[in-house]
Each structure stands twice: as C-alpha cells, then as structure tokens.
Specification:
Chain A has 514 residues and is α+β, with helices and mostly antiparallel strands. Chain A has 17 helices and 19 strands. In chain B, helix 7 (145-159) crosses helix 9. Chain B is globular and about 85 Å long. The chains are: A alpha+beta (514), B mainly alpha (335).
C-alpha cells in the first residue's frame, strides 16, 4: 500500500511540476534590452573582490575598469597613456628627489557624501605600504613615508627613490579609499558595501552575474552621461557575441577578431579597434641552445611578424622590435629587427645548423589564453623549420607559466603577453629583462649591469635614454623576441560614443550617447 | 538495498570525505601554479614573494597546512578565499542554492522529456514512429550539455531572441529575497511574476543540462518497459482484456521505473558536474561558475571547499537514489 502510494505521489508531483512553466507565462516577453539611461557592458571577467588595493584582484589589469568606475586613482590617465589630474591635482618631487609633494583636489566627496580629506590619502598610502596589509605592490608604496599634512598639501620623505612612483598612482593598487568608513565597517563590511569617490557608486552586486552602478551625483568630474551602468559578467567570448546580437548588452570587447569584423558590419553596431598597452613576446631563457647568439638571432630574424598579424589576427596588431610599443615613453622606432630568413640561415650555418641538421629546443605556449596564441606559435615553428630550427611545442596553463618563470625554469623559448599600462620602460624592459626580477627569463650579467643603474636614475631624460640603449642592445643580441602590440576590439551600439583607452580600460564615464 | 546498507554507507561518509580532502589538498600543492605566482606584480623581489607566501600560510610544510586546514574545517571554518576575500563557507552557502535550483529544474525537464519519449517509443513499438523517437533520443545523447548550451544560446538568444542568455535575473529588476533559493522562495510566497522572470533566465541552461540526461532516462526506461511488458503479469493482464496503454501505465510503468531510477539517479551526479561549463556559458551565478574562477586563480581554500561540497552533494544524491529505490521496490524494502 505504502509503495503504491509513494509511486503515485511521485508521478503526481512530477506531472504537476512539469505544468508549472506553462502556467507561469514563461515565454512572455523577449530578451533583455538595456533600459533607457542604462549602459550595459558585457564584461569579460568576473569581479572577485571590491578592495582594489589588496589580494589577487588588485593586480589583475582587466578588473581595473570596474575599480576606476567606483574608486578614484590618485592620478588620472588620459586615453593616450599620459597622466592627468585625478584626486591629486598636483604631484612631484623636490629638486634632489628626497621628498614628494601632492595636492588634494578640493570638493571631492565619498559616495556617502562625506568629503575626501588629505587624511584619507595618507591613510591609503600607509595602508598600502604596510607589509602585513596584503598589498601586492607594497614594495613600491613602502619607498615613501613620514607624511605631513598642511591644508590640502601632503608631503612625504623618500625612503628609497622610485622613479615610477607617481605612475603607479594611476594604476594597480593606486586608489584612495575612505579611511573613516573603512575603519567603521572593517574589511568584510567594505567588501559587502564598498564606497569610493569615483563617478559611480555600487547599487547591486550579484557575484558572477552582474554589478549595477548608479551615478555619483557629487562627483568632482561632473555627472556621467548614464545614470545606471550594468557590468554583466559574461566570461565566455561566444556568449559575449550573443549578448550583442541579442541586444542584451550595449557594448562588449575581447571577442575573436573574426566576430569583431562580422559584428561591426551589422546594422546598429559599430566597432573600435585601437592598439593597447599589451604586447605578445617570446621569452628567451639563458640555457642551451639559447646561449648561442647565432641561434637566438636566427630565431628572431626568421619570424615574419607582419604575416602573422595579417593572416592570423586579420591585421589587428602592430609588429614590434623591442618590448616598448608605440606610445610607450622609451619607444624608439629606429630599432628594427628585420624579417630576413637568409640571414637566419647564415647565422645558423655559422653554428653548424641547417634545415637538414636543425637545432632543437622546446617552445612553451598557452592555448586560448590570448587570441590565436597556439596557432601563432605553430606558424612560428613552421617558419623556424625552414631555416634550421626544429622546435617542439609544449602547451601549458598560464598559472604554470608564472610559476616556472618565477623559478627560472621556463623552456628555452616561452610565449607570453606583457602588459604595461603606465608605459614606463622599467615596467616592460626593466622587469622582463633584469636578472634579479622573478619575471625575467634571461638572467645574463650583461643586462644586469646595463639595467641595474637605471633603477635609481634620478635624471628622467637619462633614464629613458638608458632604456632605449638597453633595448637596442637586447635587439642586437636577440635576448627576447618581441612580436606585436595587441589591438583591442570593442563592439558597441551605434547610438553610443566610445573613447578607447590605450591602457585597455573600458570606462563607462567615458561613454556617452552619440 | 536494505535500510541497513544505507546506514552502513552513512558511516562511510566521513572517511570518504577525508580521502577526498587529502587528495584535493595534496594535488593542488603538487600541480604547478599557486595563487602567489598569479599575484606577483612586476618588480616584486624574492623577499616580496616570500612575504606574500607567508601572508597566505603557503610557506608552511604541506602536512602543517593540511592539519591546520582540517582542524578548521571540522569546526565549520573552510577558510577565507584568496581571490574573493570572503569566508569560503559563506560563499558556498550563498551560491549553492542557485546550482541546486538549476539542477532540480534540469532534472524535472529531463524526467518529463525522457518519460514521454520512452512511453511514445514503447507505444509505437515496431512502427516508424519508434525509429523517429529512437533517432531523436540518439541525437540528444550524442551532443554534450555544453554544446547544447551553445546551440540554445545561439538559437533562442540570437536567432529567435525569446529568452535572456545571461545571469539568474535581470540586472534592472529590484527584488529582495530572504533566502538564496530565489525560485523556490518566489513560488512559495506566491510571487509568480518573479518566478516567471527567474524561470526565463533558467530555462536555457536547464534545458542544456536536461537534454542529454533526458535521453539517458528515455533509453533506460524504454528498455525496462520492453522487458517488463514481456513479463507474466503483463501477459495475464492482456489476456484479461485490459488495453495496452492501460497495462503500460498501471502495471508495466511502475515496475520499469525501479531500474530507471536506480541507474538514471546516478546520472544526476553527472548533471551536477555539467553545471560547471553550462553555468559559465550562461553567466549563471552557481557554484559551477565559481569553480572555474577558483581554478583559474588557484584559489586553494575555495577549490578545497568546492570539491568537498561537490563530494557531499554526490554522496547525498547517491544515498537519496538508493533510498528512493528501496522505497519503490518492496523486495528491497522487506528483504
């Protein structure tokens, strides 16, 4: 009896539940459309954490667009990577570089209406410099201390000269947070209800789904064009394309170039594709056979970068010869590494290699981490084979790349992309090629001796010139293979006016109705 | 399976979970790539890296880390997520309901489609319609859930944009919920408009998960129906003059259901595993979507918490299926 009742109950439950969706008028209404006054962005990564100064998210360049919508950096950055006043209206060193001075903007307010004070600035800098605070860039912020406040002016002592200090104030972890509010609610409370002084304030957050922002009426830079901004976290590129085609979002980016070309030709949509501060490169590790200069140079000269950009990236890329891309401060267009397969063959011949007797090594790459990364390495390996290089491709995850690089255990060649949103040579050539840096694959003394003195160089012109000379030397020695500068594809509704940023950020405050 | 067997398996749950905990903990630390290597900024020195490692306790020997973590887990503290910077248990409890609701809806859809396909197939036995149903079931089975997700996304999100393709609810909608079981809560509180809005978001991911599962149910049930229909009790009922549909529904179906539940129930765990990719594609805020981010960021505490949660879910599901089969089958119930 009981069993038959149970069976019947189960069947009745199943039948009743199956009828539910029909009764709910499930298919009523179409796909979601952006409401009037609302800008919806299909964003390519999730937002793990709100505190922009601590932990993993703080050093993820892709998340900075969201942070810069809610929080103000100390110093602003223009679309061309140049620096402009942010919450700080003036900043600089004294003559002998022993002190820094900063002037805080008057009239700026936090999202709760309280004023942004010099005390907030000092507290943010001291918190960032605290070794136990969890700020990954702590080693930069700790180089200044003993702050003093006089009105809206803040001064500090230089404990160790860091030429890029003010540049960092526009980028990773360089944000001013509200001291009083943070101390009142604590770290957990801040994560649940963050406030900043940026153009938008947090209105609703559904983790891994969306972040809804509302315009900050008291924003010092003027009220942004859209009252509401929604960041939809759509991490799958196919889904982001579908978001645009279905009208569910007004703007997206980081989609395959084929899709970018297809979508921008559709009625109602437009595309922007501008080079950004992110380059593709191949690390050379100072192990055999890369200790042979002929092999390194042959590997460089046998790569047709223009063909790779044209054929694999549909022309969306700028071939480069150094780690400095156009727009970076130490970019020198006179340094050229030409595509010359005959030169590559003759260099290899000098070391006893030929297409019949090739030099062999492994090249590591990610697959799908960056557009066409694996296909690009396949093409390069094909070009190498023609001149006498037989490279074996090893695919790995990006996390493994980071760990191998930190342990100086990469293969002789390893593909990577290097971002440099502040455009300074120390954060490209400097950290990528200076032996003691955990990011460097080429640990040779030659570069340690050349780059070392530039870290503390107080004469800015001399410092930039020094890096240009280092870049020239690296190109002549083939100690790294720069490939090209990435181009960021942005698709948006034609009804929008979008300002593309060279640092790759998608800032809603710079988007307005066309 | 007798009730005693279920109790015996309940006793085995703690050692099973301990084994899972050991494996995931050790594997995460042996496989290259840790959260610190993902966090190293340009310019960090070895001392800076060491400082970060110490901050997250990763400088300790693995055994020390494990004992410390396990001691906390036993007290209900799963640690703090490195990437999200929140309590892992809180995160899991917040996100798990979304996945449970999605899995329940997918199971419901799969059961309806699977049972209907099996019944139509058996009623049309020996005719062309049976071939058509079998062919359709074959197609459902041949395409994995994540591919169904992409097909449905393009079909109903782009070609015929009837349904939303991302999230759990419209970002513009302002609704307060008391629990994280949004759908169940809105149904229980009679907010049918909210339930409809939630279902509109859930239907595509649920369908993507349900279609291959429905094919499994259809195949299992149809095979059981064929076998049960040839049994003596069915032949006797036919000899007594009962119609075939009546025999199928009242006599054959309840008996055929038992092996289908026993075998198909286990497949629910696979469906749960499928949520990882499907939730990602539809930007659905369940634990599957969170799992991918946790792995990308090498967020050890969160991965450990997620794996333990999945393990508990799998164990509970398997036990529930066994209990259901015992309940349905008098032979098992009474020994």
């Amino acid at each position: 009896m009981m069993s038959s009742l149970s069976r019947r109950s189960i069947l009745q439950l199943a039948g009743g539940a199956a009828a539910l969706p029909v009764a709910s008028g499930l298919l009523g209404g179409g796909a979601a459309h952006a409401a009037s006054g609302t800008l919806t962005i299909a964003y390519n990564v999730n937002l793990p954490s709100f505190d922009p100064t601590v932990g993993l998210s703080a050093v993820n360049p892709t998340i900075q667009s969201i942070y810069q919508s809610v929080f103000d950096p100390y110093i602003g950055q223009a679309p061309d990577l140049s620096f402009k006043p942010g919450l700080l209206t003036k900043w600089g060193w004294n003559a002998d570089r022993t002190k820094i001075n900063m002037e805080l903007r008057k009239g700026a307010t936090w999202h709760d209406g309280s004023p942004v004070t010099p005390d907030d600035v000092v507290w943010s800098l001291q918190r960032a410099a605290d070794p136990k605070g969890g700020n990954p860039i702590q080693f930069v912020w700790s180089k200044v201390g003993n702050y003093k406040i006089d009105g809206n002016t803040i001064t500090g002592d230089v404990l160790q000269f860091e030429p890029t200090l003010f540049k960092w104030m526009a980028f990773l972890t360089g944000y001013i947070l509200p001291k009083a509010y943070y101390q009142k609610v604590g770290a957990e409370g801040f994560e649940k209800a963050p406030i900043g002084s940026g153009p938008y304030k947090v209105d609703a957050f559904e983790r891994n789904a969306f972040l809804r922002l509302k315009a900050h009426p008291g924003y010092w830079g003027g009220k942004p064009a859209f009252e509401t901004v929604v960041f939809k976290f759509v991490t799958d590129p196919t889904s982001r394309v579908a978001e645009m085609e279905s009208g569910g979002s007004d703007l997206t980016f980081e989609i395959p170039y084929e899709e970018f070309d297809r979508l921008k030709a559709k009625p109602g949509l437009a595309g922007v594709a501008k080079p950004v501060s992110d380059i593709a490169m191949i690390f050379i590790t100072d192990i055999a056979p890369m200790l042979d200069r002929n092999v390194r140079l042959a590997a460089s000269h046998s790569i047709d970068k223009k063909a790779i950009v044209d054929r694999l990236l549909r022309g969306y890329g700028v071939p480069i010869s150094t780690l400095e891309a156009p727009g970076y401060e130490a970019f020198d267009p006179s340094i050229k590494v030409a595509y010359d397969p005959d030169l590559a063959k003759s260099l290899l011949a000098k070391s006893g290699y030929s297409p019949d007797k090739p030099v062999k090594f492994t090249i590591q790459t990610t697959r799908g981490f960056k557009p066409k990364d694996y296909e690009m390495i396949q093409a390069i390996v094909g070009m190498w084979r023609k001149v006498g290089i037989d490279a074996n491709i090893e695919v790995y995850e990006i996390a493994k790349h980071f760990e191998l690089r930190a342990r100086h255990a990469l293969a002789p060649a390893a593909f990577y992309n290097w971002g440099n949103a502040i455009g300074d040579p120390s954060t490209s050539t400097g950290f990528a090629m200076f032996g003691p840096s955990p990011h460097c694959a080429w640990k040779g003394k030659d570069l340690v001796e050349r780059i070392g003195p530039l870290w503390g160089e107080k004469d800015e012109a001399k410092r930039i010139a020094g890096y240009k000379a280092v870049d020239k030397y690296i190109a002549e020695e083939g100690e790294v293979i720069p490939l090209f500068q990435y181009v960021q594809p942005i698709i948006h509704k034609k009804s929008l006016k979008v300002v593309a940023q060279a640092n790759g950020m998608i800032l809603p405050q710079l988007i307005s109705p066309a | 399976m007798r009730w005693g067997e279920i109790i015996r398996r309940l006793v085995l749950v703690p050692p099973t979970l301990f084994g899972v905990a050991v494996i995931v903990f050790v594997l995460l630390r042996v496989v290259p790539g840790d959260p610190i290597s993902m966090m190293i900024p340009p310019g960090a020195s070895q001392a800076d890296i060491g400082r970060l490692r110490a901050l997250y306790g990763l400088d300790q020997p693995i055994l020390h880390q494990f004992v410390s973590w396990l001691g906390q887990v036993v007290q209900g503290n799963f640690g703090r997520s490195i990437s999200v910077r929140q309590d892992v248990l809180d995160l899991l409890l917040t996100r798990l309901p979304a996945t449970i609701e999605l899995t329940l809806l997918a199971t419901l859809i799969a059961v309806v489609i699977g049972v209907l396909a099996a019944l139509v197939g058996i009623l049309a036995r020996g005719r062309r319609a049976e071939w058509a149903v079998d062919g359709g079931v074959g197609v459902l089975l041949a395409i994995p859930d994540f591919l169904w997700a992409l097909i449905l996304l393009l079909l109903f999100g782009v070609l015929v944009p009837l349904l939303p393709i991302s999230g759990r609810i419209d970002p513009q909608v302002e609704i307060d919920f008391h629990s994280n079981f949004y759908l169940i809560e809105s149904l229980l509180t009679g907010r049918l408009d909210v339930a409809a809005a939630l279902l509109r978001h859930m239907i595509l991911p649920a369908l993507a998960l349900a279609l291959p599962f429905s094919a499994i149910i259809a195949r299992l049930l149809k095979a059981s129906l064929v076998e049960a229909e040839d049994q003596d009790y069915a032949q006797i009922a036919r000899a007594r003059g009962y119609s075939r549909p009546s025999i199928l529904l009242n006599e054959v179906f309840p008996n055929a259901l038992i092996p289908t539940v026993a075998l198909g129930g286990v497949q629910v765990t696979l469906l749960l595993g499928g949520t990882v990719l499907v939730e990602r594609i539809f930007s659905y805020e369940g634990i599957g979507n969170m799992a991918i981010d946790a792995v990308i960021n090498r967020d050890f505490p969160l991965i450990q918490g997620l794996v333990l949660t999945f393990a508990v879910l799998f164990i509970v599901l398997n036990l529930a299926v066994d209990a259901l089969v015992t309940l349905l089958d008098p032979r098992l119930r009474h020994g």
